[in-house]
Amino acid sequence: MTMRRAVCILCLLPLGMSVIAQSPKLSIVGSDTMAVLLTDWSREFQRANPDVLFEIQGTGSAAAPPALAEGTVNFGAMSRAMSAKEISDFQRRTGFPPRGIQVGSDDIAIIVHPRNPLRKVSRETLDGIFSASQRCGGVRYGLQWSGVLGAAQGSPMGGVESLTIQRYSRTAVSGSYGYFKNEVLCGGDFMPQVMELPGFAAIVDAVARSPGAIAYVGAGFVDHRVRVVQILDDGAPLPGAYPGEPDYPFSRPLFLYLAIAPEQALNAMECAFLHHVTGSSGRATLKHHGFQTVGLEVAEEVARVCP
Amino acid sequence: MSGDLQRMRYSIESVRAREEKLGAVMSAMTAVATLLALLSVVMFLGFLIFLGGDWLANAQSATSGVDQPVKSNFEVLLWGGAELAVSGGVFPAIVGTIVLTLVMTVIVSPLGIVVALYLTEYAGTGWHTRLLRIGIQNMAAIPSIIYGVFGLAFFVYVIGGRLDNLFFAGNLPNPTFGAPGLLWASLTLAILTLPTVIVATEEGLLRLPLALREGSRALGATRSETIFRVVLPAATPSIMTGIILAVARAAGEVAPLMLVGVVRYAPTLPVSVEAPFIHLEQKFMHLGFFVYDLTMHAPGSEGRVGIVAASGLLLVLVIATLNLAALLLRLRLRRTFLRTGFE
Amino acid sequence: MFARDRRYLTDSLFGLLIRSTSLVVGLLILGMFTQMLLVVWPMFAAPSVSEQVFVAGMEPGTAAVPESGGGENPGEFADRPVTIDLPRKAVQLVLVPGDSVIAVETRPQLPATTPVRRQRLSVLEGAGALSFAAIDVAERYLLLTFKSGIFRLMSIRDDGHLESAYAGTLPAHRSVRPVPGGQSWVLVTEDALVQVHLVFLAAEASVATLRSMPVSDGIAHASTVSPDRRVLVATRSGEIRLWQLDMRKLTALDGLRGGARSVDWLSPVLFEVIYSDGSTRYFELASRLAEMSVNRLFFPVQFEGYSEPGYYWQPSATSDGFEPKTSLIPLLLGTLKAALVGLVLAVPVALGAAIFVGYYLSSRRREQVKPFIEVIASFPTVVIAGLAALWLAPRLIESLPEIVGGALALPILGGVALLMAKHLPTSVTRRGEVKVLPLHFLPGLVIVILVGAALGHWVEQWLFEGSLVTWLPEQGIAVQQLNSLLVGFILGFAILPTVFSLAEEAIYEVPRVGAAGSIALGATPWRSFQDVVLPIAAPGIISAVMLGFGRGIGETMIFLLLSGNAPGTDGSLFSGIRSLSATLAIELPEAAVGGTHFRTLFLGALILFALTFVINTLGHLIRNRILTKHRVSR
Asked: A247 and A134: one domain?
């Protein structure tokens, strides 16, 4: 008899537990680049508002629009602007366009192993290294670095010239992937040989450990084990530019997207979080992580959704 | 004549010697293979313990300020700190793992036991039983990611979507159950581990002598009474073993969870002290995913391998404890039942 | 009496519960399959169409349609100058066609700092009227096409000045329709639709025909290309056909009345048909889901901007007008390649250990040793893969010759010993066959491996000019840090317990009577194993290997962390791969639910499911047959 009761209880337990209590919850999905930033923002925010629940998923920017459209999340974090297709998909589901607030910007750095003599690189060379379709005027290189280094500059090769070019990229879900593809490859395709890793940290690791590697990463992830390459932009002055410098060409916006209809406003908790993010401590955190802050006009945008 | 015999003996001797040499070499080679296999285990565990233990043993000095008390690395791992880029620390992930496996156990146990009972007590030997058996054997070998795909497509989108339309329409378009969460992850893992429970339970049931059941039926007990009063109590050790093995398997799975509800950072525990105590719609952190996230996402330097090894060690310890529990339980219960005359 | 009835009622209810639950579980397995099939199926369905009736005055086209599929065609010459914006160069080109020259004005965009430049381009003799002008995405080239089929590519300097770069011929055509993405165009000829594209080869641009679709009864009118790459054609006979650019067929749309004169898109799914009697009707396609062909999944396909057909996997759109590339071949190849490498590495060790533990060791020792190997199965693969990614990956490629040398040392030594077995002195084999775990072998084992590593190092110095990682690329073999060898190595470790455990059981289960008999007749234990035990255990061992393979192809975390996820198709062991399972884990969370990408991933899951299902069923069938045979013989 006890056994039977036990079985019955076992069967009933999941039903009993399905009763839901609604507690204030802030759910953010999107950019992997912003994930660490978001966790820090949320931790700071939680210090002042301890009863708020946080769910942060940093898979990649492309995850944000569908989640926002489904209403699964409060904020969609994206490290690029939404594409027209994403906006139209969103609009078809919800009936109104998404609203984006740019909270900062991130520079994409091109990194190589310190032994690699490559110091400066042009857009065309990058296109040649990464692209399968060379839309941006690149030339397809051979397996080894000699083609690239011969075309570029640098006297001592450090033995790198005979190594395989190992190209690293983020997975397609990442906003940086899309940005790089559109900006550097002119919308062309990555070569099939380009290795895709799910996180920038892993990419920096991989580059730090293989002399033949080249990759693009968010500037916040760069550390002393890899070397940043200067970018020679088309019209830019010759010394080229490093990430963080004002005329650096590969800079992309960081957005928090909202799913609210034009006449709607955010709820108090969402507003409080937005105020925190765009406030002084939020901006300090942004800088701490190697991102660039935006002008104070962001406060007006916030005021528009939080009257 | 004796020369022939001599020659014959000689050739037999030489064949014998050759055979013996071949046997010695072959057996030595198989022995070496065994040693290699054992060596790989020892090396893996050695790395894990050495790298992880080394990191854990170090006290944090460089990054903690003067005004802060020095935290040991174990505390950093547990509660988080500046060194640990995944800021929350491993504690919510441990709780997440435990709650996930508990809910899974609650779902998988009755299901697994019932199917095993059907297979041993009710089913005949027809083709459909054979089909079910093959199906269950196959379930055990289906890649876990496929369960994740199924969980996402069926549980989250189909069932979760329906549930929301029926019961939580007020919250729409914000989904309650129509999004990945703890419940769907548990269900997915429950299906994943179902064959483990079924097979272990079935084994236990088959081992019970037929006379036990026949005796009970002869005394007038119905089939269900026989099952509840005689068969199940006697098979408890196998059932418990199956369940614990299922838990051990589930605790190490990451791939399916990535599709059905694990997140990198959700410091709010899925359990609370007020009703309803457990939040099945919430997303959660998981120890295995924590390890993955550390490996791939945590910015940092060479020290990362230590953190990964330390949290990996933790996960291996949790699973080892569970496996050990299964082993001990089986032994202990077997002894008890041996005394009562079963088995 | 009542109590008795209640007891029986409970009993039958319980039976019902058990039967129905089991039925549900049985159906669950079937359900998984059906569920995936249901998701995959709509992808292969031909598009269906329904008529939309609008209230008079409310017809689309009169009002502004948000997602207009066409209407205006900015690059087309139709008695007006063509204006093209070059946002990257911040200029605007205005082309005014004349009789024998084209006047080009280069106007700077705001703020007007530079003056307007003027340039005159001469037209080739007999080229006919201009049909179209377009620029590429990078704004390096201006394409001018003439109705006779002649085209000219002009390279654009930074200040907007045009220089002649390339000229050639395409099919003669009536009009041109741009394809979203700005890389290709559809030429509408008298009886065919021809897609031409801009290809770059060694930084030189050219225009070539990509695909062409003959329309048997002639084209009366062709619509613009919708964002989903679909063109509608009104044929001379008045029918409406649909061409999805990457399909090799024209789809006849059902439910449309004949006698159509022209057709055009109003939105990605809505289109209007104007009939020869002057009436207009509106139709809507059931979905935006692009039709998928087996060709695109499993055969080489040439895409826009590619110079040759190939197997490409790049399915997710990051920009509008992107042509998804969904060949499953790289994923299948990558999965199989790594699983095979894993198998090759794991099987010798696993089978050797299985023979030793299952045949040579005593039952008591067997029970002590076996769990120590089987414990690998309980290590979470994420931990194994994580450690390997951070610790092993960089070391493997750095000291590849040493590791290969160390790994090869043992099998080579074994092989030599086997060949030389006859000539071994009796003193070596005096002890007979090894029957207990020879821990005293360990130092020798380590020494052999170290000597192998040293030899590997030596071979590298002598044969490969001092460095394998630079020697291999010179032979045309790419060497990547994350490669199939690394994946195979770790995968081998992960499937070792599966193969070992099952093979060991197969060997142990063989009744010892036969072996004992043959030993009594004077055979050595190894001879008895080889001739008596092995033939009986062989199917079980084969099934163990198969099940190990099945486990290998389904593994996810090891692939995800170690394979590099590069969808290449080369056969090299040293380059990155991409597996089906890792692709599912990476891409499924981002894929828009119900889209082509989402469904393609489900097809991948279905294939993986079917593959493991077949392998496992075969393995289990072989196994079960053997087990029943033994039970009978016992």
From this structure: yes
Q: Are residues A261 and A295 in the same domain?
A: yes
Domain span including residue A193: 107-251
Q: Where are the beta strands (DSSP E) in C136-183?
A: 141-146, 150-156, 162-169, 175-178
Query: Do A130 and A265 sit in the same domain of this protein?
Result: no
Label residue C57 by pLDDT band (50, 70, 90). low
* CATH code of B97's domain: 1.10.3720.10
A18 has pLDDT over 50: no
CB atoms within 10 A of CB B75: 15
**Is the residue at B317 inside a domain?**
yes
Residues B41 and B105 grouped into a single domain = no
What mean pLDDT is predicted for residues C262-283? 86
CA distance B204 to B221: 21
Whether residue A13 lies within 8 A of chain B, CB to CB, comes out as yes
Decide if C400 contacts C472 (C-beta within 8 A): no
SS3 for A274? helix
Q: Is A261 on the interface with B (CB under 8 A)?
A: no
Within this chain, do residues A111 and A240 fall inside the same structural domain, yes or no?
yes
- Domain assignment of residue B285, given as a range: 90-339
pLDDT tens figures, C15-29: 899 889 888 888 887
C-beta atoms of A36 and B266 within 8 A: no
Residue among B107, B179, B299 whose CB faces A36 most closely: B299
User: Distance (Å) from the C-alpha of residue B115 to the closest C-alpha of chain A?
Assistant: 14
CATH topology of domain C331-397+477-633: MetI-like fold (1.10.3720)
Take residue A26 and report the two structure tokens written for it: 């802030």
Task: Compute the distance between CA of residue B293 and CA of residue C234 in angstroms, rounded to an integer.
Answer: 55
Find, in chain B, the residue whose alpha carbon is nearest to that of A60: B297
What ipTM was predicted for this assembly?
0.87
Contact A172 C314 (CB under 8 A): yes
Q: How far apart are CA C616 and CA C629, in angstroms?
A: 20
Same structural domain, B107 and B33 = no
What is d(CA A41, CA A62) in angstroms, rounded to the nearest whole number?
21
State yes or no: pLDDT of A222 exceeds 50: yes
User: Residues B155, B254: one domain?
Assistant: yes
| CA-based nearest residue in chain A for residue B268 | A53
Please, which residues have CB within 8 angstroms of residue C442's CB and are 6 or more apart in sequence?
B35, B39
Q: Is residue B73 part of a domain?
A: no
Query: pLDDT tens across B51-68, in order?
Result: 888 888 775 544 444 445
Contact B274 A18 (CB under 8 A): no
Helices (H), C159-214: none
CATH code of the domain in which A35 resides:
3.40.190.10
Q: Considering the domain boundaries, does residue B207 fall inside one?
A: yes
Are residue A115 and residue A244 in the same domain, yes or no?
yes
Residue A53 resides in a domain: yes
CA pair distance C608, C596, nearest whole angstrom: 18
Q: How confident is the model at residue C139 (pLDDT cuts 50, 70, 90)?
A: confident
Query: Where in chain C are the domains?
Result: 331-397+477-633
| pLDDT over 90 at C172, yes or no | no
For residues B160 and B210, what is the distance between their CA atoms, to the nearest angstrom?
A: 44
CA distance A222 to chain B (A): 9
A88 plus A128 within the same structural domain: no
- A116 lies in the same domain as A245: yes
Which residues of B96-239 form beta strands (DSSP E)? none
8 Å CB contact of A192 and C568 = yes
B235-281 pLDDT, tens per residue? Answer: 888 888 888 888 888 888 899 998 888 877 766 677 666 656 677 77
Cα separation of A57 and A38, whole Å? 9
**CB-count burial class (<10 Å; 0-12, 13-18, 19+) for B334:** middle
The owner of tokens 């594209």 is C197
Helix ranges, C232-362 (H)? 294-298, 329-355
Q: Within an 8 Å CB–CB cutoff, is residue A288 touching chain B? A: no
